[in-house]
Write a structure and sequence with these properties.
Length: about 230
């Protein structure tokens, strides 16, 4: 049976966070993945995804009782109470100099019907810009048809078997041409064709990134993400 994009998303979040869906407004879970390097080699000790009906907050298993107890003392958590817990997490995890960031979490089941804008290139190729190399695998690049210069690109964060997070960047001189949204839609089609689900995250204040998501097929469903780096 072929999984829907939503079904793939559920499997991705279950693996990435340690549980999905949430069973209470703020569902704190312990996952060994919070102690292991992620796609880029960094350890992310706090990771969360919140849908309108609940949030999974994934932390190291050794901190589970402490954080879960603090969350429950806050009561049935409203968004404001979740913000309180997020502010307290660095101290609870013994990392007072860090902070928990919040972003908009989007996923796609139907990419926008836009023409392709780039070609897939091995990330280790000499012409690939430095920022795209850490993604590994293949990256998607739009070249200037006249000069062959790099204009814009997409890298995929391979979180697990079912989750591929899209990151896009455009050179300042090439902005305003619609390259980013075309590349994101093109990358999303490939991710779906490979049996995974494409996701996209951005800062809530980044209007340009939100516009790219909206126009490439990643609607804002009211989902949010949390991470401590």
């Amino acid at each position: 049976m072929t999984l829907t994009a939503e079904g793939r998303l559920g499997l991705h979040l279950r693996d990435w966070l340690g549980r999905w869906p949430p069973t209470e407004p703020v569902d704190v879970v312990g996952s060994v993945r919070r102690e292991r390097p992620g796609w880029d080699g960094r350890v992310v000790p706090v990771l969360g995804v919140g849908a309108p009906d609940g949030t999974i907050l994934s932390i190291p298993p050794s901190c589970l009782d402490l954080v879960r107890g603090r969350a429950r003392r806050l009561g049935r958590s409203t968004p404001s109470r979740l913000k309180v817990l997020m502010r307290q997490l660095p101290v609870l995890l013994g990392k007072p100099g860090q902070r928990v960031y919040s972003g908009v979490f989007r996923w796609c089941e139907r990419p926008a019907d836009l023409p392709d804008a780039g070609v897939w290139v091995d990330a280790s190729a000499r012409a690939v810009p430095e920022w795209l190399r850490p993604f590994g695998h293949e990256v998607l690049i739009a070249w200037d048809p006249d000069t062959g210069e790099y204009l814009a690109g997409v890298g995929l964060k391979h979180h697990d078997r079912y989750g591929r997070e899209i990151a896009v960047g455009t050179e300042p001189a090439a902005r305003g041409r619609g390259l980013a949204r075309r590349l994101v839609a093109q990358a999303a089609r490939r991710v779906l064709d490979e049996g995974a689900v494409p996701t996209y995250q951005h800062d809530p204040t980044n209007i340009a990134s939100a516009r790219v998501a909206d126009t490439s097929g990643f609607p804002d469903r009211g989902w949010r993400s949390m991470a401590m780096f």
